[in-house]
From TrEMBL:
PROSITE patterns: GLNA_ATP (PS00181), GS_BETA_GRASP (PS51986), GS_CATALYTIC (PS51987). GO terms for biological process: glutamine biosynthetic process. Residues 93-195 form the GS beta-grasp domain. Residues 200-651 form the GS catalytic domain. Belongs to the glutamine synthetase family. It comes from the Eukaryota. InterPro entries: Gln-synt_C (IPR040577), Gln_synt_N (IPR008147), Gln_synth/guanido_kin_cat_dom (IPR014746), Gln_synth_cat_dom (IPR008146), Gln_synth_gly_rich_site (IPR027303), GS_Type-3 (IPR052725), GSIII_N (IPR022147). GO terms for molecular function: glutamine synthetase activity. This is Glutamine synthetase.
Amino acid sequence: MANANQARKDAIRDNVQRPSREVQYPIRDGKPVHTSEFFGENVFGQAQIAKALPKPAYAQFIRQKRGGRALDKSTADAIAHAVRIWAMDRGATHFTHWFQPQTGTTAEKHDAFLTMKSTHGPSGIDEISAIDAFSGTQLLQAEPDASSFPSGGMRTTFEARGYTVWDTTSPMFVQRGPHNTCVLYIPSVFISYNGDALDEKTVLLRSTEQVAKAALAVLALLEPVPVGLPPLTSMVYTTLGTEQEYFLVDRSLYVLRPDLKATGRTLLGALPAKHQQMEDHYFGHIPSRVLATMSETELELYKLGVPVKTRHNEVAPQQFELAPIFEETSLAIDHNLLTMDILAKIAHRNNLKVLFHEKPFNGINGSGKHCNWSLSTGSGDNLLDPSIKPETNYRFLLFLLATLDAVQHHGGLLRAGIASSSNEHRLGASEAPPAIISVFLGEQLTEVLDSIEESRPIKNFSVPNIKTIKLGGTALDVMIATLPEISRDLTDRNRTSPFAFTGNKFEFRAVGSKQSPSFPMALLNAAVASSLLKIVEALKTAAGDKPYPSDADKLKVIRQYIASTKNVRFEGDNYSDNWRNEASRRGLLNITSCPEAFDQILEESNSSMLCGLGVFSKSELQSRHHILMERYAKDLMLEANTLRTILAQQILPAAYEYRAALAASCAQQKEIGVSAGPELKTLNLTTPLVESLLDWIDKLDDAINTVHQHNQDPAKEARASAAYILPAMEGAREVADELEIILADKYFPLPKMSELLWF
């Protein structure tokens, strides 16, 4: 234990002495270059394609991008040639199709532009020469091994072929690596030989298409135009802003924690005396090494066209947040995954380790990925903007109610979308949205809906003191002359709500910081699309023989949906026991385990909706359920085996060594006639804990063996893992943490939470 403890002490010393890394932002003529001037310089987007292609070819590419036709070979070859020259001018030697398999991360396989060409020389002997080449075929598709990625039984080992296909809605980019290497990245989808979705993006793109079609159908009824004229709105898309939370710890301490390395979280560790109870970390001063990491990350992301906007300290020590400007959903998700990748690389350069696990430290706040979702027209008109008078903005009300209806009828499906072994530790805790999916609207919108339902005048929310706040406070009724009045939002915030309306968008707060937003956003898109289609039928029914619904018809449908979605609306404290009881009375699901959540994917109302819209096929849904169950069981099994190893090989030996030292001290005290009471008291405290920890190791072994009996059935294995492994791990941790508090510091082999959280 002495060597382990010394390594810990050395890491702490190195942590304090390590200087910050310095990176210079671009400078021209001795002056800083404005961010807007180098933003997106490493991106080959639509503007670059337009410049590279003849006008007819570019027009054909745009038609393909919008779903009008397939991309022909000559256009693909022209784009491939242009992007190769552009990328090689920036130092690229390789290209890769960048995709999102169902592993929770991204994947890439690098191929060189270099190829060999055979020519017939003057002597009649073939001459081999090296050339750089990149064809349209290579741009459009590649072939990774589909059997080596999770497929949920759709592919077997001997059925290995799969395809990555260029997603033309997301721009290509170059990214630099070590030793000044550079690679061209081609955002792609990943499908099987039979066309089944093996990735996260394919189903996201399908869902985006379906919600756009459904929204256009609603708008076609709400915005009538004369015969022969085009519709007022020809395109609708979803927008997304992802607030990414994460922890940073010193890398030299991280490498001494086997649990952090293997699982992404601490499987044991007593809460330090100071953690987040002083409430001084949130929005506090950013440590210099962290700010250096943030700044360098932002520099790289700006070059890649990622519009990162906000950075700040989060609630827990060493917890931080990075948030971007809103973008189209698919692009926003690509950028979020790229952000996570870049942040991890830059943290490594600064001798830090980024932790995206939702709950890396027990007893303090976990991390989420708050997904701010909305609907927008092609002209940038936000369909969830309530405007000045939401009570008469029927378009807004119908889209708002469609979202409420989606959560009302498919809340279990949304719960499945954010379920994982890591997020399970966060959901329902005292700092995160609970496992019950409900919607917060705020006082004004709640009053608007209630007044419409009850056919009464709305309470007056338009008086001046609602729009502005006088600095000085309502209690004093005074003004601070040097401070202006400030504008006041329509609604307050509710940090306990998993799905909250925040002005002109919904914030899905329950998404985990570690996961890709693709799956939960695909489920949300699909659910809203289904509800919009129901509203289309309701409007047509209300209109009867009329070609378009009247205002009275719209109001009738609005009242109908206000009444039917009332149960999912909740304005109070989502953490309270009263809400759990009330939610049960309302018929809302309270899903507390991952296996139970995963089953919602195959629940009839959810599966029929997803398959009916074409977002998933039946086989893809079965595959997804299989993969989620299998991954959950593997995660818990990995954690259980890691914890058992740490307890048996590090914690118990440290305790034995400490007990031996105490026993020797007792004997020495007795020999010289001095009371050994203090040492004996500590020894008597330590011994029962050691014995208890041995018992819990046996229980862990029993749990692991029980789960192994179901390893041929992922669903049974996942349920057994939840039933047996989780309780055994929690029990063992509780005892180990008590033991940590008693053990003399010089015997403890692992960096403690107090050392990981403060540097």
